[in-house]
Design brief:
The two termini are 41 Å apart. The strands form 4 sheets. The protein has an 8-stranded mixed sheet with strand order 7-6-15-16-17-14-18-21, with helices on both faces. Helix 1 runs parallel beside helix 6. It has 2 domains: 3-49 and 104-177 and 278-352, FAD/NAD(P)-binding domain, CATH 3.50.50.60; 184-271 and 356-389, 2-Layer Sandwich (D-Amino Acid Oxidase, Chain A, domain 2), CATH 3.30.9. The relative contact order is 0.17. By secondary structure, the protein is an alpha/beta fold. Helix content is 35%, strand content 28%. It is built from 12 helices and 21 strands. The chain binds 8-demethyl-8-dimethylamino-flavin-adenine-dinucleotide and P-hydroxybenzoic acid. The site of P-hydroxybenzoic acid has 9 residues, from loops. P-hydroxybenzoic acid (PHB) is lined by residues 48-50, 202, 215, 223, 296-297, 299.
Length: 395
């Protein structure tokens, strides 16, 4: 089967695959993106909402930040609310000027798709990759199904940007891959509501009844999450119960009325920590959720995907421009220190803020002591702010 040919074959049109394709194009490197779903599906998929400073800078530098700058909400702080007592964390003041942008992941995806299509880039939607083959030889290929037919994409390199359930990772022999993982005894029930925000900044709440998070998508659309059990049924969460729990957990001593609005997009998200090492094998490179998953409490998943492809695009640029493969060889090691920093931070935020039924009285006291330390210590709160806004890139 002759098939199509390109320099970098990219599996997945999530933030990782699309940004990689865009960054490569800026350096004159050709790629084809294969995406199993339709364009409408990936543009409407509700996920992350917080971009850290390095992600904002990367999108700006790549020329795809204009709408984010117009429509996104730049935040300089977050609130930590412990059993009704709120404490503002001055992210910008504590990090020498860093901030985060509240801008929905699907808007980033729309902006990247638009940029690729304007530049005549190739994204094949409804093209499901079936297998990555021969990536240990010089000429890897991706077998995929498009318009009812099996086809082949021949390339120099394959980027597996196909998320946690993709096929790319499974092309790596199990004895060449080490998997580290952990599950959590809780999940998030998330809703979107066209109701006015109770505050201008995000509120992360630890409460005896469980965790809750107030976030937003715009000044008139709230994104709210409450901790629930991983096996909870949505039927057990009528809208009134969600609002009651949000009010109880997010309410402050000073009083913080929540305006109840229509409940949209009700969904339960399980939580998991997962890393597959190394993130490369032969000419196959994994980036984003295909290599690692973090629980959402630290808001790191999308940001790690961006950091990975930033490294990978620079490594591919060094290869094509200077015939230098040292950065490609180092890709996994270069990516993993940030991955593990984000893993630790996400695990820490998750365990510090959620309620666990298994916790002993001693565990509960330790948990409250950690939160108290954040509130009382400038060293502790500075560390939180540094991790939340994201450590600067080394390049
Ligand atoms: P994606 O976005 O999952 O994209 C992978 C793409 O690959 C496609 N695909 C295939 N295509 C072709 N052939 C195959 N065989 C394929 N198999 C899969 C899929 O259809 C999909 O389009 O992975 P990527 O690009 O690595 O991006 C990762 C992020 O999506 C993810 O980490 C974040 O959404 C996580 N996350 C958050 N991250 C943050 O940085 N900040 C946040 O505030 C934040 N909040 C969240 C989150 C994730 C959440 N959920 C629903 C898991 C909040 C939630 C509720
Ligand atoms: C979101 O707005 O969806 C969001 C914000 C912060 C998080 C996770 C998700 O930690």
């Amino acid at each position: 089967m002759p098939g199509m040919r390109t320099q970098v074959g990219i599996v997945g049109a999530g933030p990782a695959g699309l940004l990689l394709s865009h960054l490569l194009a800026l350096n004159g490197i050709a790629s084809v993106v294969l995406e199993a779903r339709s364009r409408a599906y990936v543009e409407e998929r509700i996920r992350a909402g917080v971009l850290e400073q390095g992600t904002i800078d990367t999108l700006d530098e790549a020329g795809v930040g204009a709408r984010m700058r117009r429509e996104g909400l730049l935040h300089h702080g977050i609130e930590l609310c412990v059993n009704g007592r709120g404490h503002r964390i001055d992210l910008t003041g504590l990090t020498g000027g860093r901030a985060v942008m509240v801008y929905a992941q699907q808007e980033v995806v729309k902006d990247l798709i638009a940029a690729r299509l304007v530049a005549d880039g190739t994204i094949l939607f409804e093209a499901e990759a079936l297998a990555v083959e021969d990536h240990c030889a010089d000429r890897p290929r991706i077998r995929y199904r498009h318009a009812g037919q099996e086809q082949t994409l021949n390339c120099d390199f394959v980027a597996g940007c196909d998320g946690t359930h993709g096929v790319a990772r499974s092309a790596i022999p199990p004895d060449a891959l080490t998997v580290f993982e952990r599950s959590y005894p809780y999940a998030w029930l998330g809703i979107l509501s066209p109701s006015p925000p109770p505050a201008d900044e995000l509120i992360y709440a630890h409460h005896e009844r469980g965790f809750a998070l107030y976030s937003m998508r715009s000044p008139s659309v709230s994104r709210l999450y409450v901790q629930c059990a991983p096996d909870d049924d949505l039927a057990a969460w009528p809208d009134e119960r969600i609002w009651d729990e949000l009010e109880a957990r997010l309410g402050s001593e000073a009083g913080r009325p929540l305006q109840r609005g229509e409940v949209q997009q009700k969904a339960i998200t399980p939580m998991r920590s997962f890393v597959a090492e190394p993130m490369q094998h032969g000419r196959l490179f994994l980036a984003g959720d295909s290599a690692h998953i973090v629980p959402p409490t630290g808001a790191k998943g999308l940001n790690l995907a961006v950091a990975d492809v930033r490294l990978l695009s620079r490594a591919l640029e060094a290869f094509y421009r200077h015939n230098d493969s040292t950065r490609l060889e180092r890709y996994s090691a270069d990516a993993l220190w940030r991955v593990w920093r984000a893993q630790h931070f996400s695990w820490w935020m998750t365990t510090a803020l959620h309620r666990s039924d298994d916790a002993s009285g001693f565990d509960r006291r330790l948990q409250l002591s950690q939160l108290d330390y954040i509130i009382r210590s400038s060293a502790a709160v500075t560390s939180l702010a540094e991790n939340y806004t994201g450590l600067p890139f080394a390049d």
